[in-house]
Amino acid sequence: MSMSRSKSFHVSIVYTLVIIMLLPLIGSLLYALSTSWMATILPQGYTFRWFSELLTTERFYIALWHSFVVCFSSAAIATCLIVPTTFLVHYAYPQYKKLMELLVLLPFAFPAIVASIGLMQIYSGGPVLLTGTPYILIGSYIGIIFPFIYRVNANAIQGMNVPELIASSHLLGSSTWKAFLMVIVPSLKKSIMIGFVLSFSFLLGEFVFANILVGTRYETIQVYLFNMRNYSGHYTSAIVITYFMITLLLAYTLNRLSRDKQS
Hints:
This protein has twelve helices and no strands. The protein is an all-alpha fold.
């Protein structure tokens, strides 16, 4: 009887947390569908006008495409760079683990506004002019998501007997890098996908770097949302719900593809 009560208590906590997390989204959805919502608990009327207007606006699609290009490129490049680095640190250079643990904390140590202003000062003039281009945003985003990708894959590598796997591959005539590509990477598929999806989803919501470093010169979805804040609260709520659903669908698709490959 006590176990049943304990289970019910735990389930109620989970459902309560889920409801708390969903309430802002439900409120945004209702506001995006409302004709007017002033002093009542529920909207006074409902309409699809704001979603219809949003989905027929070319600027929205351009901003969404810019976000996908920058976020996908950043996550892909960061994954290709950080996964081999994580392997090398844990296999060939374990003395640098503490240094990597320190580097993982650096993106959280510097406020985004400070880092973005510093980058703007450096790359606003010659010889390399990057401010206002997506390239500076991709470079900045790689640094931001470094902790996510490194930590997820480091935990997975620590759960593997990497020296024994590499030694076995050497006995079979394989080089270290071939063993990494043919043995270690397939074993890290799940962690690589988790790190990629987590990084991609996180970057889609990033605003400070995008607004300061590129602004409207390469308008992303978050900058577009900020620029439309004075137009209509209903319209901005429609933007939030639409890009959230697109992100959720994309994350679900990537997760399904990862499961299908593993099976």
